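Chain A, query sequence.
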Amino acid sequence: MASKGLKRSGDALLTVDGATQQREGMYMIGQAAALCIEAQTMASLHRAVSVYSTVLLDGCRAPPLSRANLNEPIAIIGMECIFPGSPDLESFWANILEGRDLITEVPAERWNADLYYRNGSAAQKGKTPSKWGGFIDEIGFDPLQYGIPPQSLAAIEPAQLLSLEVACRALADAGYGEERPFDREKTSVIFGAEAGMELSNAYAFATALRSIAESCRRNWTRRCPTSRKIPSRVCWQTSSPVASQTVSVWGA
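Chain A, predicted structure.
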């Protein structure tokens, strides 16, 4: 639709007007749609996004930041966490005070160290020179508490489930449990999430499967979630019509 001004209706191709072409054809295409306004060579496109972009940036000046009229101080009134060797906030602080080293060998249920680990910095191809890390122990999760059908757990990213559990505990720690109402119109969820999670990594695997087994790829695509759903899932499970946003956290 964006390039040809056509849309499919059953087996027929229908012509759409310019307004529809721009409104529906450019949906979520982002800056790619505005990158070029005419045919270009690869050389001219390269200059536009490299040399000319730096010229444009050099001419830009950031606007001065203004303090909001309704600016209010921020207070942390509730906390909760899940870390290696620390299934809750109390054990986390206790481990810090005691100076405990919670780096361990990889658990056997994560991956087989005998199969992948090789001692030495020059490990052979397909092997790793390390078998140590920080690993979270099993965390109990009751899907029915959050209105999730148990059969759907296999298709939900574990980090999303842990986010619900941690968010629920943090609200309770702040005194906002199930019994205490609060103004949801002034509430938002901002969640920091690292992209390399278990089921999200399956997206890359599913892409590689395209040349091997297309039917398998489609099955994986239907099941794979995304980290962007985390704040929305928290809002939905708490029946909160609030704003939500995912913040990428690299190297977490």
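The first strand starts at residue 6 and ends at 9. The chain has nine helices and six strands.
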